[in-house]
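From the pipeline queue, job 12 of 40. The input is one protein chain; the requested action is below.

Action: predict structure.
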Amino acid sequence: TNPTQQVTTLQEVKVTTGTIAVTDDTNTIVTIAQPAGTILTDLIAYPAGNIVTAGSSGNDLDISIGTASAGAQLLAATALLDDGGAAVTWTANVPLNIISNASGKAANQFATTGVGPKGGPATTEAIVIAAALYSAAARNIFVTLRPIGADLATAATTVTYIARFQEL
């Protein structure tokens, strides 16, 4: 007998932040609508301009992902730009695949991403998914960027996110 074949759909949502907050401990949040019965398979982000940390240890740009505004239910606050004492740059138009195949990333995974010798941030903490990326019901996912430790050196730009959802 032949197994029943079923076609599933892939849905993509694209959203852009307002201008990224440069100020320490200030959130920049975007809302992404997750359709019912889907799993978040990919989350890709890219800035329109360079984003640069202040250059002292602990001056990071954190990312968190939640099901509540500024929440961390899906990804606890994690240094996307992990400043260990030298400024870290996320170069304009370099995409970072933050979630890939419904999985996180190892530390420093982006160091060779993109154009040029090192288009992605040189140092990043490990991206560890904290909860199921599947939802039977439609829900909002909130992605938060937050400078910590000091103001960012450069960030007068926006970040665009592309979220891919697979119907299950």
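Job complete. The chain has a mean pLDDT of 91.
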